[in-house]
Every structure is written in C-alpha cells, then in structure tokens.
Amino acid sequence: MATKSICLYFQVHQPNRLRLYRFFDIGKDSHYYDDFANRTILRRVAQKCYLPMNQLMLELINQYKGKFKIAYSISGSALDQFQRFAPEVIDSFRALAATGRVEFLAETYYHSLASLGSDSEFKQQVAKHAAKIEELFGVQPTAFRNTELIYSNSIGEIVYEMGYKTMLTEGARHILGWESPNYVYTGETQPRLKLLLRNASLSDDIAFRFSNKDWNMYPLTAAKYVTWMKDSVKEGDIVNLFMDYETFGEHQSADSGIFDFMRELPAAVLADGTFNFVTPSEATKKYKAVADMPVEDPISWADEERDITAWLGNELQSEAFKKVYAMKEKLAIVNDPDLNDDWGHLQESDHFYYMCTKFFSDGEVHKYFNPYDTPYEAFINYMNVISDFQIRLDEKRAALDVKETVNEERNQAPAKKVVRKKAAKK
Amino acid sequence: MRVLMFGWEFPPHIAGGLGTACEGIVKGLAYNGVETLFVMPSASGDEDQSATTIINASDVAVDTVSETVEEYLDKVKFIHIGSNMVPYADPEEFGRLIEEEKRRQVKDFSISYGQKFKFSGKYGANLMEEVARYAMVGGTIALQRKDDFDVIHAHDWLTYYAGIAAKELTGKPLVIHVHATSFDRGSVDNIDTRVFAIEQKGMQIADRVVTVSDLTRNTVINRYGIDPAKVVTVHNAVDFSGRENLVVERGVKEPVVTFLGRITYQKGPEYFIEAAAKVLKRTKNVRFVMAGSGDMMNRAIRHAARLGISDRFHFTGFLRGVDVQKMFALSDVYIMPSISEPFGISPLEAMRTGVPSIISKQSGAAEVLQYAFKVDFWDVDAMADDIYGLLSYPALADFSARMGYDEVNALKWNGATAKLKKVYESVVK
Questions:
Q1: Are residues A77 and A131 in the same domain?
Q2: I need a surface site. Which of A360, B90, B280, B315 has the fewest CB within 10 A?
Q3: Is residue A210 part of a domain?
Q4: Does residue A304 lie in a domain region?
Q5: Which residues pair with A102 in a beta bridge?
Q6: Which of A418-422, B229-233, B238-242 is predicted least confidently?
Q7: From CA A168, how far away is CA A156, in angstroms rounded?
C-alpha cells in the first residue's frame, strides 16, 4: 500500500488582453479589450492544449478507475472566455468533473492581486469564483489557491475565515531554508489552515525543462521522473506538482513528447507502488502537518525571487495598482454591473506583469507572455484605459447625486435649484 | 538676385523642421523677387517647385573638369570624417538606423572621378560620409551653374561643407544659416566635437551668418567665437496658407495642457511634469499630455508615475500627420519648456490653432511672440501659475488665444525673407 502521494494541480488562466487604447480614445470609446487577439489566442490554446489534454486526462482517469486524480484551478476570466469563444472546452471540463476524480480549486475570479489591494474585494472575488465553479461543475471548492500562489500569514488568515482549510502555495526556498516542501504545513498565525507547498524543482522539470535539449537530463521519461520523485520524497510525504496547464501542448509543444510523457506517468507511478495520487483536499486530510510556516512578506511562485516583484516591483506598477484600487469605494456606491465587470478585468494580474522591468533574470519568461514591446507601453495603455474608466465612474457617481437631489427636492418643496457646472469648452 | 541654396530636406518628405523652414524661405524669397536653385541630397520629384528649382544631388556626377579629385579635396579642405553619427536621432532610433544601413548593404563609398552618389538624404548612420560627399557634389554643381547665381546660402551644418566648397570653387559669397547649434542638441559638456568643428568652420569662412534668433546669435558669437559684425538675426516665420483648423470631437471633458515635441533633455520635459504635479495639487479639473517620443520618454513616464499623477498625465507616443493637428485642436494650453531652443515653431502652430501658449525664455520664439506667456524653463512655480491662470480665468485664456492667433498670422516669411535679401545684398558687390 502506497504511503506517499503525488498531488497534481494545473492552473488554467487566460487574461483579457487590452487593445491599443490611445489618449484620443479616452472619454469616447469604452471598449477596452482586444477581442481578436483574445479569441485567437484562446482558440489556439484550446486546440493545442485544453482540448487534447482534457481528453487525455479523462482517458487516464477512466483507465485507472479512480487511482489517477488531478486538480484544476480555472480563473473566472478564463471561464468567461471559454464560454464566449470555445464552449467545447467547458464541456470537456464538465466531463472531467463528472468522473468525481477531479478537484476544482477556489481562486479570485479575475486572477487578480486583490489579496494585496483590498480584503473586501478579495473576499468578493473568491465568492464570485466559487459560485461560478458550482454553477458550471456542480461542486463547491474546498481548497484555495491564490493568484500566482501568492501567500502570506495575513492572506492565510482571510482564506481560512472564508471557510477554506487547505491552501496551495510555493515551497519558497527563502522561507523553507533546508526544510522540505514535501510535507503539509500550517499557517503561522492561523494554525488550522493547512498549506501544500509546490515542489519547485520537480514541477519545473516538467513545466520549464521538459523540452530543453541542453538540459543534461534530457530527455525526461516517466520512469526517470518516478525515481526523482522517490529520491525527493525520502524526506516527506507528498510531492506537490503545481504548474500552468498551458505547459501541455502550448509551452511544451506536442512534438516534444509532453503528452506521451503524461500518458505514461500514471502507469509508471502506480507500477512502482511508492505513490498514490491525491487531490489537495485529500492530501491535507491524509497527512498531518509537521510545522507552521512563517511568511511575513508575500511569496509567490514567480521568478527567482519567489516574491511579488513581478507585479508590484517598480513605480509604474505601484502607481497603476494604487489607482485601480483607489476606485473601490466609489464603485461600491455606484454598483453598476458593467463597471464592476470592467473593473474586475482591469485587476487581472497580467496587466501588472506586462509592466515589469525585471528584464534580466527572468526576461525570457516575461517576454513570452507579454503582448507589449516595453513595460512603458503597457503602462501607458493601461493608464489610458484607467482614465476612461474613471470618467465613466465619475459620471455614474454624479448621476446618482442628481437623482438624490431630485428626490430630496420632491420631498421638501419648494425646490432649490441645483446648478451644475458644465465642463467649459470653447 | 539669384541664390544657390544648399538644404538637406524639402517638403513633403521631411524629418524635422528644417525642410519646412526652407520651403518658407524659398517661397518668401520668390515673393521678394529672389530666384533660388535649391540643392538637396535626395529629391523625390514630388517637391513643390513653384518657387524654386530643385537640383537633386543624387543625379549629379562629380565632374570637376580641370582638377583631379585630390586637388579638389585639397581646395575645399575636405576633412574625411568617420561615419556613424546622427544629429537628430535618439539612441534607440540610431540603433535601428544602423540595422537598416546594414541591411541595405551599403558599400564602401570610394570617391572616384565621374561618379554619381546615391544620397539617402536622411539623418542616418552614414551621415558624416553623406555630408562629405554632399560637399563634392555641391562643389561640382556650383561650378556647372557658375553663371546662374550671385550668392551661396547653406542651411545648418549638414550643408556647410557644400557651401564652403561652392565658395572656394566659384569665389562667390557664402551665407550660412544657423537653425540650430550643437549646444541645442546636447548639454554644454556633451556636444559632438566633430559637428562643432564643421559648424565653426562654416561660420568662419562664411561672409555672413544668419541666425534664427538673438539667442542663437549669442551662441554663435560667444561659443563659436564669431565676429558679431557678420552675424545677423532673421527670425523664423511660419506659413499657414492652406491650413484649416480641424474640428475634433473631444473625449475628455477637462481642459488639456499639451507638450508636443521630442522628449529629450533640451526640450525640458521634466519641468513640465513637475509643473503638472503642482497644478494637480490645486485642481483635478485638468489633464496633461506629453506627445512625442525620445530618449527621455521612459524616464518621463517613471517620473509621472512616481509623482502619482499618471491618471491625469498622458503619453501619446510619436504622433504623425493629422494626429499632430488633432492634438493641437484638443489642447487648451500649450507648453514649450525648452532648456535651449534656437527658435521653436510649435508654439506658433498652437497659437494658430487658438491655443494659448507658455514658452520658456530660453527659446528664440520668445523674442518674437508678445502674446505667449514666458517663463524660465527651470521655474516650475511660474509655469504652474500660468497654467492654472489660463485654466481658471477664461478671460485670460480667450484674450491670449485671440491675440496670439493674430500675432502668429502676422509672422510671414515674406517679411523675414526681405531681411534675408538685404543680407545677400550686403555681400554681393
């Protein structure tokens, strides 16, 4: 009987990329998205990754009759785009959900950095996402993963408050020191929250190094990989393999053999007998936590630093971030569905990632995901959109005032005339 | 009076303001009864030749009849200078130009007898070579056309060698026209010494040096050590004929304060950003736009972000054609905070569009514009005051818009070129 486990979790996300939005558009055109690029990219990734990989996962789950399990976290932004541009992807995830061997995780609806910007917005987005998952797949998420695996003590507290007892994050070396990521940990300030830590090295062997012919371990085979996992788990209970789903067929192309690797992996694992497969919520039930993990400053799974500087590391990013969350209060008062929707999309972490100026250590990865030539262009475009959004918000807010004033006037005759100053322009 | 004029560009294909000024000058001279032969390195054939005859230097073979190339070089004291410098290009643009040149597989330009040169006529990476070759061809043209002109007129350093060659070979008087100096292109400690040397040589050999402002005249006298007696200011003018102001639908409701130009050190973009932040502390009912691109652009974007004003301070990137007019039409205040600006035509364009303008005292335009607001480029408080005043007091804005419009319409090349004609007359015996 296997005593150790493998936990496979795949992240599915697609941002709503912004169109080229110029100063001249501000106040005139409030459609912000590059629909063509978004549709094209989504359909391409669906063909190359989501559909074939979902099919493969379904076959493997059926083939191993419950012994092969996986988990997904699918952002609301991605789900909305599937519904619009590729509904067959939703169907294929539904088929996976129907097997009962797939866990769907909770996250922020918009794949946002709300956990760093506004607690209340964070909670709202998580609730919105959970509702969407239940609506589409008929299950309520019980484990949580934050955008880019961002975690800190205080984020952990809020996540537990929202009812999640399991959370996924990074096995960040600067936090763990020589401790192993292959155990269950708890939050330092919320000991009832159990933490699963990504095994960065083993995850990246698949996600980043798989097709790299210069890698001295190339080519990677399922048998070889199982021996590495066994080595790693000599210390520990569980190997957490967390990666972007787009690894399969998109980042690592089909002809690299990535699908064959995945097809062979369950058989190799089960034949060896050291491991079984578990989902995140099963993992934290099965294993006792060995220690708490203190995280003062937020960590993530990105870049060498494993911190949040990919999104909030320079003055452009901080400025954009401040400006977007400064509108929270006014938006709550206005409570307009269109504005709320756009505001959500503008919070997608990708927009901030495009403004990153850390070109040196992780520039290649950044460039790969970036539709802009420079972070400055990304910033200008984003701020132009924000400016238009502010105008719409202010107009709605002002309209509310007028309504209230009119109501007041009705209630207390005789009416005072309110003179609104029109914006002067010759 | 007949003039052999050496330019570098001519509308419609222009990279900077020099071509536009040259067109105004030849038209104004024609009005004043002065004929011009306008030589340029690379003409396209679609230039308007109603006021001048254009000679395409790329069509002229070097054929100096009686002399060998060596003698010729000796005569014009041609100095061979390495290539790869660009007077008006940004570092990024420079890199791109180099790549372009490589792609074009430009061969080594050996100077040989009876050969035509293909000029790019651009401000490219081989600029120094082109300048030298332009001098060869310029000399040849001058000899061929010896009987067709009385005076030689060369615009900016790119053409000075051509002017010098023409003067040496024909003995006719040379007027050089300083539209900008090295000190307007870089800070004092950071000028290109090769360009400086060409400029100084041109000024020394010329019979008269025409400057576009007294500011530039002082630079010529003090920094290049030229005899004040031969340096004459002829202020630039602007030709608005055929220009209709665009009607543009406004997106933003707030008044717009605009900076339009290359975002480089000498244009003073940082002072504008600081002034904008000061105004925004007082009122939120305003937007600022920095239109253009340049090597200081990214720094400017960071600067605005650091000050936390990026939702009110917008960047458009480089604007082309009609977008420039559109930008003026959308503006309520125009600002030119240049640290050093030999003249600066953009506030005239703004005022012609009915936009009140604030310009630095360190600009040549400040010498001719009565109805522009003038501040020292470093005085961001004064800049902020003026912006705030123009935004807050409609009477002030209306007055300066109206008076400014009339004022710039009166700045005609016909008047400026009458002055130029006098300069010619003073050197033609």
A1: yes
A2: A360
A3: yes
A4: no
A5: A70
A6: A418-422
A7: 10
Q: By residue range, what is the domain housing residue A389?
A: 313-409
Mutate which: A20, A24, A25, A312, vs B, most B CBs within 10 A: A24
Residue A302 domain flag:
no
Chain B residues 105-144 with a CB less than 8 Å from chain A: none
Residue B96 has pLDDT above 60, yes or no: no
> Is the domain of A325 the same as that of A230?
no
Q: Do B310 and A323 touch (CB under 8 A)?
A: yes
Contact (CB<8Å) B302/A315: yes
> pLDDT tens for residues A190-246?
999 999 999 999 999 999 999 999 999 999 999 999 999 999 999 899 999 999 999
For residues A208 and A335, state if they share a domain.
no
Return the pLDDT at A343: 97
Residue B76 clears pLDDT 50, i.e. is over it = no
Mutation target to probe the B interface, by most B beta carbons within 10 A, among A330, A352, A383, A421 is A383
Concatenating the DSSP letter of every residue in B144-207 gives HTGGG-SEEEEESGGGHHHHHHHHHHH---EEEEES--HHHHS-GGG--HHHHHHHHHHHHH-S
If asked whether residues A213 and A335 sit together in one domain, one would say no
A395 is catalytic: no
The single residue of A103, A107, A148, A188 carrying the catalytic annotation is A148
pLDDT class for B322, splitting at 50, 70, 90?
confident
CA distance B285 to chain A (A): 9
| Cα–Cα distance measured from residue A33 to residue A85, given in angstroms and rounded to the nearest whole number | 14
Distances (CA, A) of B234 to A56, B16, B113, B189, B211: 79, 19, 39, 28, 6
DSSP label at B369? -
Asked if B394 has any chain A CB less than 8 Å from its own CB, the reply is yes
Closest CB to A26: pick one of B251, B302, B315.
B251
What's the number of domains chain A is made of? Answer: 2
Cα separation of B85 and B196, whole Å? 13
Residues A50 and A159 in one domain: yes
- The reply to whether A189 and A333 lie within a common domain is no
User: Is B56 a residue whose pLDDT tops 70?
Assistant: yes
pTM across the whole model? 0.84
Q: Are residues A389 and A248 in the same domain?
A: no
The pLDDT tens digits of the residues spanning A173-201 come to 999 998 999 999 999 999 999 999 999 99
Question: Which of the residue ranges A124-133, B76-85, B364-373 would you say has the lowest mean pLDDT?
Answer: B76-85
ipTM, two decimals, is: 0.80
Residue A274: both structure tokens together: 């050291």
Residue at A179 is within a domain: yes
Judge contact between A110 and A348, C-beta under 8 A.
yes
CATH of the domain at A263: 3.20.110.20
